[in-house]
Amino acid sequence: MISLSNFPIVDYVKAAIIGFFASFLMFVATAPAINFDIAPFNIPPPAAVAYMLGIGFGPIPWIMHFIYGTFWSCVFVFIWGREGSTFKGIALGFGLWLLLMVVYSPLVGWGFFGFGDAHLLPVNHPLYLREGADFALLSLVIHLVYGGLVGWLNPLWEQVETF
């Protein structure tokens, strides 16, 4: 049976740091891709959700994304604890990618797996999404890297002695 008391709070603090770090790396990969028109979208998914909610742009979407990434790393430790692995982390990343594809992507008008009508918007519209599988593939790779890092670093750091 899984219980919060099975793991010291320091394990969750470590998981939060790892989740933040992995989310930050997603940001580092995504921001230049947008600036150099490599990304299939004008604004990343966190900003698209914030836009749809009327929150706007700025740091809030990324803060939401960092909180989300931190949360899922803690969930990973809660579920697998010291039995976590890179493979299990990649499975987590795949699950989060599916959540993006079937919940968030349709929510912002990009359609399931990015195959909506957002490519019909003006190219400079914030919610414009290039037609094709680019969005699904790019976000899959980024989420698998996130999950792989969470799955690899959490058990690795759990082995480090704490004071």
Structure description:
- This protein is an all-alpha fold.
- The protein has one domain.
- The chain is built from five helices and no strands.
- Helix 4 packs antiparallel against helix 5.
- 36% of the residues are buried.
Oligomer: single chain
Low-confidence stretches: none
Whole-number tally of structural domains:
1
H/E element string?
A: HHHHH
Secondary structural class:
mainly alpha
Major sheet size, sense and barrel closure: none
| Strand element count | 0
The general outline is elongated
* CA-CA gap between termini: 27 Å
Q: Which range best describes the helical content: under 10%, 10-25%, 25-40%, 40-55%, 55-70% or over 70%?
A: 55-70%
Count of individual helical segments: 5
Mean pLDDT: 90
Gyration radius, rounded: 17 Å
Report the sheet-strand fraction: under 5%
